[in-house]
Each structure stands twice: as structure tokens, then as C-alpha cells.
Amino acid sequence: MTMFMRYLAAFVLMCAAYSAQATLNIEIIGAGEHQIPISIVPFAGESQLAQSISGVIINDLKRSGLFRTVDPAGKAPHEPKDVIFTDWSGVDALVIGSVVQGADGRVQVQFRLFDTLKQIELTGQAVSAKSDQLRAIAHRIADMIYEKFTGDAGVFSTRIAYINREGKTNRLVVADSDGYGEQTVLSLNESIMSPAWSPDGSHLAYVTFEQGHAVTYVQSLLMRQRAVLAAFPGSNSAPAWSPDGKQLAIVLTRDGSSQIYLVRPDGSGLRRVTFSDAIDTEPNFSPDGQYLLFTSDRGGSAQIYRMPVEGGDAERLTFEGTNNFSPRYSPDGKSFVFMHSNGKQFLIATQDFETRQMQILTDVGWEKKPSYAPNGKLVLFATESQGRGILATVSSDGRVKQKMIPQRGDIREPTWGPFLK
Amino acid sequence: MKKLIMSVLLVNLLAACASEKPKEVAPEPTAASSTAAPAAEPAAANEAAVTTAAAAAGDELNDSNNALLSKRSAYFPFDVDAVQAADKPMVQAHGEYLGKNAARKVTVEGNCDERGSSEYNLGLGNRRANNVKKMLVLSGAKAAQVGTVSFGEEKPKATGHNEAAWSQNRRADLNYGK
Fold first, then answer.
1. Contacts (Cβ under 8 Å, ≥6 apart) of B35
2. How many other CB atoms are there within 10 angstroms of residue A40's CB atom?
3. Is A85 on the interface with B (CB under 8 A)?
């Protein structure tokens, strides 16, 4: 019964290779229309730590393109009673805090966020954590600041997954959204493709060629166990989770050309949902779970279509350029992001469902595999810089671009993970 | 003129291909290869016996002077999966050979250039391999003799964002094993 969940020996699974040092070099281009000026005072006690908390917060806020960080110029309040609002007339927001290292190896982090115009404290929190969780705490603080001033949830605490290819070695990697804290989930001397996060962030589905053909696996990130999701003759690929996590759409060639099927995460309940003799691939569920976007060449060229999950007519959505690929719904379901080809270049574009207007967000020309941040404000994709495969993000309005250049290898097939509850 | 240059180039590529073939299409060596045969090679079990028997009988497949059978790759234009006229005689010759050598098995490996999405290319490579298989079967091979696999854009023979590289990567290889 190949369909049954089979836990395989962990001989191919690398142990978590946690690396705290910088694995990426980050460049930011552009700025949001209205940047919020903010000062983040170095936290009391942080100079004795391996990790500067205020530094992580500053980098997070800068990367969003929505904040302009202003140097505190020597002013260093650490407690609310020390804050003199008239000192901070150049900024709209002020962050102060402190870190205390306990005898048990844990650290106590305190922070407060002030609205310097209204002269009030907006929020504050005290957290106790292990000393190796300082980056995670800093990301959570940045998320709270982001949410207070933009009204949208921050994504600094979320994670991304991608493939790092170096020579013959392909590593499936999970990292913080800023590229730090890389953990190798799987390392193979064969291609790994199409990582896909489960909606709760606990599992990754992905495709490898270790069995000689494309086989889809589901792996637990906590237990590090993995199981074959589909290993039929031919290719088994393009996994996409439904929003409730109860099924995946996958693409099989067992019946001829690439067709979309639904299957439960344990490999049971397989059923076919597209019936064309074309290539139907790259399925993606709508946030309400009712529709699938997918790529198909049924009309003669690769374009993006939408159909009800339960089957029915597919509607062609893209008509611009020569080809369009790799659609992903925005988290609010109002638009989708995709790879647009004009015949010469591959660019990241979005299209609104209502107006059908396409907006091109990038201009380099080798951009692939876009995915939305869970707040819908940024798009992550793979591109090239000086002949190397790198990660990049662009704000969904196209204004702020960011390159994340790995120290080693070529990055491909990135995908942004969900909010963690 | 352009066409002529292209076809000369293609012939050179094919020639280069043929001479190096066994090395290029050899499957990745895996740990414990003695026990676990890769799924893509159903012929692996009786490989050794077949090869020695064929060699003894003067297998025409190994005759480097055989202009058609010594070629193992069909090439495709961008986003096209139909076997091209230039490659039909070669594919048909392999079909006839398989028809005459029922113990022989072959895997058709479909490949693509890097343009388009990796998943679309996996589908395109599958169709290229299937179309070569269809022609092999029409020319005398039994369906059970021919396996197919798509590598999409995952195993490029040449790297570079240019047609010189892409044209080599849009390819279906006939892999008879070692």
C-alpha cells in the first residue's frame, strides 16, 4: 500500500544545522510613500549580549520600507520616566527597552513603544526567554511596532523556505524571514523542488528526484519525519495545501500529461480534478478554499486559469505577454501574484480579480516563484544577481525592493511561510 | 544561411553527445547501489546479462559507425514537445532496434531549458519523453520496453542564459543504461 503514510529512515535527513551568523547580505532599494520616522534606543544591557536586539528591530523596520529609522544621537532613556518627549520632535515613534541576564541563563527583555506626537505609551511588554531566542524576541517586538503604526500584522516573526543549490548538493532550508537562522531540513545530491508550507507551518511538502523521478513528500518540521505523499509512475509534483490543511492539490502524470489531483496529507483519498490533455500544473488554493488557480497550456500557451476545487469549468485569467506561470492568491483573495513572461524576460506581476489590471513589480528579468508574505504586503521571489541565484522581496505596491544574497550557493524555489500561532 | 549554421551546430552537438553518451546519462551513483536500483531503470536487474550477450553478438547499438543508433538525443524548439523531422529517422531506428531486441529496455528522459516555471517544465519534459516513446512504439518497440521520466529543467547539460545553452537542454535522451 504505497498510498499509506510511510515514515522513512532518517538517513537522508540532516540534523538541524543552526547557524546564528549572517548567512545573507541584504540590500534595500526604494521606500514607501509615507515613511514613519522612528528612533530605537539601544536597549540597556544589550551590549553584553551576543545579539543586539535594537539592531534586529531596526533592520526589520527598514526592510519593510515603511519606516525611517532616526539615530537617537546619544540620547539613551531606558525607562518611561526618563523619556522627555520634546527631545524626540523629529520622530513619530520611540522604542526603549532593557535586557537583564538571569543566573539561570535566561534573559528578561522589556520594551516600550511611545507615540511621540500624542506623547503616550502605545504598548509595552516583558518577555523571558532562553538567550538563543533573542532574535525571535526582537522580531516579535518589530511585529508589534509594525502593527501599531500600519494597522497590518507584521511578518518579521514568520519563516521562509527555499532550496540552496551548491554544486551537486541541494539543501531544503527553512530560515527567518530576514534570512537568518538557516536550518537545513533536507540535503540531497538530487534536485529538490516546490516546497509548500502547511497552513499551520508545522509541515513542508516538497518534491525530490532521489527515487529517479519526481516524488512528493510531506515532512514534519518538529519531528523531522517524512513520508511519501505520492510516488506514482511519472512525475508527482507541485504540492499545494488547502487552507484547512486537510488536503493537498498535487500534479501527477500517471494518466498521461500533467493533471491536478486532490489528496489527503497521509496520501489517501486521491481524486483527479482536471481533465485536459494539456499541462495543468502549479495549483494554488484560494484563501476560502473554494477555488484553484493553476497554470495550463490548454489554450496553446502557458496561462493562468481559475476553477472550482470541486471541478467545473476553468476560466482563463491572463492575456498579457507571451506566457504566465506560478500563480498564488493574495492572502485577502482579491488578487494573485505570478511570473509574467514578455517573451524576453520573466518578471513578477500581480493582477486584481475585479479590475483584471496587471501590475509588473520587478525589472531584472529572471524572477521566478513568487509568494506573498502572510500579511500580503510583500512578495518573495527568486532572482539573479551577478550570475547567482538570490532571494528578493518587493512590496506589493512595487515601491520597495530588497535583495538577500546568500554567502554560498544559488537560491531557488523560495516560499513564504504562514503566521505562526 | 542561419538554418544551415544551426543544423551544422546541431550535428556537432549530436556527435559530441554520441561519443560521450554513456558517461552523461549514467544515473547518479547512490549509496548501496548494489541493492537499490533506481526506479527509473526497470532494466537494471538483467542489465549485465543483456550487455554481455549483446556485445558478444556484435550489438548494432554499440556500433559507433551506425549513424542513427549511435545517436541518443532528440532536440526540441522552445516550448515544443513534438519530435522534430530531423530526429525522426533516429527515433524510428531505435524503435526498430527495440522491436528486434525484445530483451532490451530503454528510458526516455525528457529535459527542458530554464525558461518558464520549474513545474511547467517538468510537465513539458514529460510530454517530450512521451512523444518519443510513442514514436518508438510506432516503429516497432513494445510499450513495456520503454520507460519515461521527466527531469524538467533540473538537469541542464549546459548552463547560461543563452540559446546555445538552451538548445542543448531542450532534449529527450534515450538511456539504455550502462
1. none
2. 28
3. no
Q: Are A321 and A304 in contact (CB under 8 A)?
A: no
B113 contacts B73 by C-beta, under 8 angstroms: no
Euclidean distance between CA atoms A38 and A67, whole angstroms: 7
Residue A125 makes CB contacts below 8 A (sequence gap 6+) with A110, A111, A141, A144
Q: What is the pLDDT of residue A63?
A: 85
Mean pLDDT (10-residue bins), chain A, 421 residues: 32 33 64 86 90 92 90 92 92 95 88 94 91 91 95 96 96 92 94 98 98 97 93 98 98 96 97 97 98 97 97 95 97 98 95 97 93 96 92 91 89 96 69
Residues 3-62 of B with CB under 8 A from A: 27-28, 38-41
- The answer to whether residues A122 and A148 touch, using CB atoms and an 8 Å cutoff, is yes
Question: What DSSP letter does each residue of B33-78 carry, written as one string?
Answer: TTT---TT-GGGGGHHHHHHHHHHTT-GGG-TT-TTTT--EEE--T
Contacts of A211 in chain B (CB under 8 A): 38-39
Considering the entire predicted model, what is its pTM?
0.85
Distance in angstroms (rounded) separating the CA atoms of residues B98 and B88? 15
Pairing of strands B146-152, B106-111: parallel
Q: Which residues of chain B have pLDDT under 70?
A: 1-57, 178
CB A142 within 8 A of CB A56: yes
Q: Give the C-alpha distances (Å, rounded to integers) separating A350 from A353, A395, B11, B176.
A: 10, 11, 43, 45
CB hemisphere CA count around A244 (13 angstroms): 6
**pLDDT value of residue B178:** 60
What integer pLDDT is reported at residue A354 of this predicted model? Answer: 97
ipTM of this complex prediction, to 2 decimal places: 0.90
Angstrom distance (rounded) from CA A77 to CA A83: 6
Contacts of A410 in chain B (CB under 8 A): none
Partner-chain contact B122 A369, CB within 8 Å: no
Write out the three cell numbers for B90. 533516429
Give the 3-state secondary structure of residue A393: strand
d(CA A393, CA A30) in angstroms, rounded, equals 12
